[in-house]
């Protein structure tokens, strides 16, 4: 399903891998294991939920630190051909931060940004390693994808043209403008908006499914994280909370009940 433009992988770059592992296994309920990739010459941890891995954990690279990148979550969008997609992003006004390269035994990826400042990765799996989206609200999986852009309407057009995402609905947020919900194969997967002025930079934000919000908030606080916004009920009846982990990475949780 990579050709559909789904987010197929998520990665946390952090300043303290052991501390981040302890925090997310406690808060989300993930299992964690070393990826066993000595040939790549780096430590990489896999977070798993249920049937298999859902996200990766690595140390924040020196080149990212040099660019002023803080600990953060990044999403990988599946495409049929990383090299062609990377050129297409640049052709539409985006940037390339890391040229396409192979991950032995896994696939090929690049690091790019859209024309309005938000970074993400492109990924093509090796043949036979296709991906299917999990059922909605499956605990431990990512249930929503939210873009805070420097120009929400134009960013929506970029992703629609790049990946075939379709407009599901517009949600009017008053002075903050329109929240554009996008769908893939008639299923809502996220929203795109113009970022608030107080937000320092454009970025993608990812919501992890948990069974209940209040209990998860207690785990965040117990684990040394900080609640930034929420809990808040959103249209449709789900509950969300936005937070930072102890190393400062921004993340969000979504649950069917409070």
From TrEMBL:
Pfam family, one: Glyoxalase
Family matches, as CDD domains: SgaA_N_like (cd07247)
Occurrences of domain VOC (ranges): 6-125, 141-256
Alphabetical list of InterPro entries matching this protein: Anthracycline_SecMetBiosynth, Glyas_Bleomycin-R_OHBP_Dase, Glyas_Fos-R_dOase_dom, VOC_core
SUPFAM superfamilies: Glyoxalase/Bleomycin resistance protein/Dihydroxybiphenyl dioxygenase (SSF54593)
Entries under PANTHER family matching the protein: GB|AAF24581.1, GLYOXALASE-RELATED
Protein name: VOC domain-containing protein
